[in-house]
């Protein structure tokens, strides 16, 4: 569930469901914190890959992965992470059929 309305969405988001979903993630997954080291690595990635605008969000994910030693990313957004293929392995998240 997301806080951003989907195209054509006529009903407001269910914020209680959104908050419960976030709490469920915190209970069931280890959260990699955005630390000073992550910020330093983000600066390096911004320089190395000439990151601009909204691309900073993806670079921040990669910086966090690097600091925590994570190599694999599962995402719907494979195209935006392709530039980091020398650093991480990007796996497409395919919807269940």
Annotate the secondary structure layout:
Layout lengths: L14 H14 L7 H14 L5 H13 L4 E4 L2 H4 L7 E4 L5
Parallel strand pairs: 1-2
Helix pairs in contact: 2-3
Written description of the protein model:
There is one protein chain. By secondary structure, this protein is mainly alpha-helical. The protein has a domain at about 35-90. It is built from four helices and two strands, in the order H-H-H-E-H-E. The protein has helices at about 15-30, 35-50, 55-65, 80, and strands at about 70-75, 90. A two-stranded parallel ribbon has the order 1-2. The longest helix has 14 residues, at about 15-30. The radius of gyration is 16 Å and the shape is globular. The model has no long low-confidence stretch (mean pLDDT about 90).
Give the structure's gist in a few sentences.
The chain has 97 residues and is mainly alpha-helical. It has four helices and two strands; from the N terminus they run αααβαβ. The protein starts with 14 loop residues before the first helix and ends in a 5-residue tail after the last strand.
Work out the helix count. Answer: 4
**Beta-strand segment tally:** 2
First CA to last CA: what distance?
19 Å
* Fraction of helical residues: 40-55%
Give a quick set of tags describing it.
globular; mainly alpha; two-stranded parallel ribbon; 97 residues
